[in-house]
Design a protein that fits this description.
By secondary structure, this protein is mostly helical. It folds into two domains: 87 residues; 34 residues, no CATH class. It has a two-stranded antiparallel sheet. The chain is elongated. The structure holds zinc ion.
């Protein structure tokens, strides 16, 4: 990857990070003691709520939690990748330390492992 491509990737990731954090702040509360950890808001049911409304609150909460967890995972991937770009280790397989195939990085910019290691990991 050329320095320009890395710079572009970093900008894209920072942009996505902003969007993710905004979404997370909407549906969840940041955990002050753990970095990049969020907790989905619980939709409290009111005393006058019907059973149906209560069930609805729980479903909403579960949906938010699922979304929140996906966003959080993505945020972690982005932060990891940004850290690696800053450290100059971006594009290196975390397992075998060989360079990750450029084509693979184009498809999965946040890839941590080379194709072989990723394949072994899914088979394991
Ligand atoms: Zn590898």
């Amino acid at each position: 990857m050329t320095p320009d491509e890395v710079k572009k990737l970093k900008e894209d990731l920072l942009e996505e990070k902003k969007t993710l954090e905004a979404e997370l702040n909407r549906i969840a509360t940041k955990n002050p003691s753990v970095e990049d950890d969020y907790q989905a808001h619980f939709h409290k049911s009111e005393p006058g709520d019907t059973l149906d409304e209560q069930a609805h609150s729980i479903t909403d909460y579960e949906e938010d939690r699922a979304v929140e967890q996906n966003f959080e995972l993505r945020l972690h991937e982005i932060n990891d990748t940004l850290r690696k770009i800053d450290e100059g280790t971006y594009g290196t397989c975390e397992k075998c330390l060989s360079p990750i195939d450029q084509k693979r990085l184009k498809v999965v910019p946040v890839a941590k492992f080379c194709f072989d290691c990723a394949k072994k990991a899914t088979l394991a």
